Fold this protein.
Amino acid sequence: LKSYLDVDIETKALKLESFKDRLGEEIIKAEYAKTSGAIAIIKIDDFLDQANLFENNPFPKVLEIISDTIAKEMTPLNIFGRLSEREFGVYFFNSTSKEVFLWAEKLRVKIARIPISVVSKQTTYTVSIGVSSANSSMGIDDIINNAELALQKALEKGGNTVRTTHN
């Protein structure tokens, strides 16, 4: 039954295929409205030494808090999807990659400042974010790949960073 749902149960974000379908629709809408769009891919950075810090796996709690934080920072015009276990995509209708970069930077700082309690211990977690413009001259996979490349640059910097592709 879970496989028939468009929405990820843990995060209430669209699953990858549903996200791609909606992204395609939104890009067509943006083209007709003669406006721009951009995408941010947000990855929860790897935890250091988590087995020693916690009696049990902190990931479900971290996932819940980070996905809730992302959702609260969005507008009704955004599309929110879970692209993989640790990655989310957010599409911005009528926004430039520069505007989305600023949004992503604020989100990164906000998440890094949230203390997350797991059992009796409390710590903070970080995200890395890749931003890319999204327009109808590119395919859906190309748009996502461009944002993934920007994300890769952020991860190469050591995480807790926002990077953008200039296209």
About this structure: The domain at 10-164 is CATH 3.30.70.270 (Alpha-Beta Plaits).
